């Protein structure tokens, strides 16, 4: 699927943002564990011997966004990552679950199924998912008693998981690994007798870990974080209303578009100013560049950036806590003609694509030459090249790259995004705003 994008300087849109997949996937996993514990009590059992027929409860609250057709042809407005999580939780003993490209689901479900005593499932996905490292999580789970086998290559999916009654205790994990590894361990910790998780060295994407702990607390489990140690007590989750909240990662695209088009009128619905999502810091970054945000009585958000604010002052940002913002921020700053240095990007090589290299390649197509410094930083200081006459953007099957590069349509009317359906991972219905 290719899309052709032309954006008017006077673009207007009332945007209902998709639900945050980061929040939704955590809610689904916590609710699934609550459902299992409830089933155990109802049957009068004293051990966690749960039938593989148990189904997780549905995520409460509406899933927002424009509807699309899913892979089976049915209308759905649910991001692919959330749909993959649901499939994985609804699996049965002996099933093989294809998660497509859903990295969050793979990490969370690996921990979840490791606790499902007596059940064996195989988790797999597309080529890129099976290239993304998962050994640190598997090694940690094995220390807790998990039975996980690599089907093909050590350190990578597919994984064959046979559930056991895991034990808690003390566990050491490097802090610079994926925060999803940490979150996966934290969310199963109460049901396996509690856990002391010690994080060594620098901690990346900490806001995502904070999000996990906040949602666990909403469901009755309060962890303590002192220095490098997170202590999770043993216990059962409690039911709680789901956090039905718009995705700040998706909002970052629209806020960047507003920064590029001062005359546009874009209204965002579904966000919360007190959100637990780390990516809400995009608003802080843009406010430091001159954007003014306005929260309205109906909960909507609008923003203004005057023409005078689009200056050539340098921008410096450390995205160690929120590296997923990098693609949109890098593309936006290039298009604004604003030099920058962005650090804290060491995890981007192992996302849905090598995001650093993908940005370098695709930005050259529209005339910008960025410099990658090692694995941690990207800089730009007005370096340009001749743009392609009719650029066709390859998003490298990565929703963040597709969304970031779509911003270039403000300078290149008729910009083509190839393989555009990759945005369904987090934002189905995005292109409908431009088709309208």
Keywords:
436 residues, alpha/beta, UDP-n-acetylglucosamine1-carboxyvinyl-transferase, Chain, 4-stranded mixed β-sheet, 21 strands, 30% helix
Describe this entry's structure for a reader:
The protein has 436 residues and is an alpha/beta fold. The chain has 2 domains: 3-19 and 245-435, UDP-n-acetylglucosamine1-carboxyvinyl-transferase, Chain; 21-45 and 75-232, Enolpyruvate transferase domain (UDP-n-acetylglucosamine1-carboxyvinyl-transferase, Chain), CATH 3.65.10. Helices cover 30% and strands 18% of the residues. The protein has helices spanning 21-42, 80-89, 103-114, 135-143, 179-188, 206-218, 248-260, 281-288, 326-336, 355-365, 399-406, 432-435, and strands at residues 3-5, 12-16, 68-69, 75-76, 96-98, 120-124, 147-150, 159-162, 169-174, 195-200, 224-226, 229-232, 265-269, 292-295, 301-304, 315-318, 340-343, 371-373, 377-380, 392-393, 415-417. The strands form 7 sheets. Strands 5-6-8-7 form a 4-stranded mixed beta sheet, covered by helices on one side. Helix 1 runs parallel beside helix 3, helix 5 packs parallel to helix 6 (206-218) and helix 9 packs parallel to helix 11. The longest helix has 22 residues, at 21-42. The model is unreliable at 44-75 (pLDDT under 50).
Summed up, the domain count is 2
CATH superfamily of the largest domain: Enolpyruvate transferase domain
CATH third-level topology of the largest domain: UDP-n-acetylglucosamine1-carboxyvinyl-transferase, Chain
Summed over residues and divided by their number, the pLDDT gives a mean of 89
- Per DSSP E runs of 2 or more residues, the count of β-strands stands at 21
Span between termini: 17 Å
How helical, in percent, are the residues?
Answer: 25-40%
User: At the first level of CATH, what is the class of the largest domain?
Assistant: Alpha Beta
Strand percentage: 15-25%
User: Which architecture of the largest domain does the CATH hierarchy give at level 2?
Assistant: Alpha-beta prism
- Kindly report the spatial arrangement of strands forming the biggest sheet: 5-6-8-7
| Computed CA radius of gyration, to the nearest angstrom | 22 Å
Low-pLDDT windows of residues:
44-75
Shape: globular
Major sheet size, sense and barrel closure: 4 strands, mixed
Tally of individual helices: 12
Output the structural class: alpha/beta
């Amino acid at each position: 699927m290719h899309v052709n994008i032309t954006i008017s300087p006077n673009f207007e849109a009332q945007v209902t943002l998709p639900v945050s997949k980061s929040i939704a996937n955590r809610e689904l996993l916590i609710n699934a564990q609550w459902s299992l514990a409830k089933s155990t009590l109802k049957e009068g059992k004293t051990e966690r011997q749960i039938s593989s027929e148990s189904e997780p409860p549905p995520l409460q609250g509406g899933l927002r966004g424009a509807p699309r057709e899913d892979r089976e042809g049915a209308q759905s407005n649910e991001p692919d990552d959330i749909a993959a999580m649901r499939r994985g939780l609804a699996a049965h003993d002996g099933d093989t679950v294809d998660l497509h490209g859903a990295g969050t689901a793979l990490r969370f479900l690996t921990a979840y199924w490791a606790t499902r005593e007596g059940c064996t499932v195989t988790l797999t996905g597309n080529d890129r998912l099976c290239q993304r490292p998962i050994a640190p999580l598997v090694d940690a789970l094995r220390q807790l008693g998990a039975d996980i086998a690599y089907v093909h290559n050590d350190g990578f999916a597919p994984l064959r998981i046979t559930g056991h009654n895991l034990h808690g205790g003390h566990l050491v994990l490097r802090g610079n690994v994926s925060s999803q590894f940490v979150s996966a361990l934290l969310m199963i910790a109460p049901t396996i007798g509690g856990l002391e998780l010690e994080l060594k060295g620098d901690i990346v994407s900490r806001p995502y870990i904070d999000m996990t702990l906040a949602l666990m607390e909403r469901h009755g489990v309060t962890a303590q974080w002192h220095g490098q140690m997170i202590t999770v007590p043993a216990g059962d989750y409690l039911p709680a209303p789901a956090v039905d909240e718009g995705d700040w990662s998706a909002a970052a695209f629209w806020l960047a578009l507003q920064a590029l088009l001062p005359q546009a009128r874009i209204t965002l619905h579904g966000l919360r100013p007190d959100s637990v999502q780390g990516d809400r810091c995009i608003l802080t970054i843009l406010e430091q560049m001159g954007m003014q945000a306005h929260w309205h009585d109906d909960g909507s958000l609008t923003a203004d950036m005057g023409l005078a604010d689009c200056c050539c002052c340098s921008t410096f940002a450390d995205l160690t806590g929120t590296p997923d913002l990098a693609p949109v921020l890098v593309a936006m700053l290039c298009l604004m003609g604003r030099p920058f240095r962005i650090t804290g990007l060491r995890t981007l090589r192992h996302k849905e694509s090598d995001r650093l290299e993908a940005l370098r390649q695709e930005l050259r197509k529209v005339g910008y030459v960025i410099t990658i410094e090692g694995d941690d930083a990207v800089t730009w200081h007005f370096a340009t090249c001749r743009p392609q006459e009719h650029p066709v953007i390859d998003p490298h099957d990565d929703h963040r790259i597709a969304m970031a590069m779509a911003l270039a349509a403000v300078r290149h009317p008729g910009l083509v995004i190839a393989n555009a359906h990759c945005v369904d991972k987090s934002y189905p219905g995005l292109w409908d705003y431009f088709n309208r």
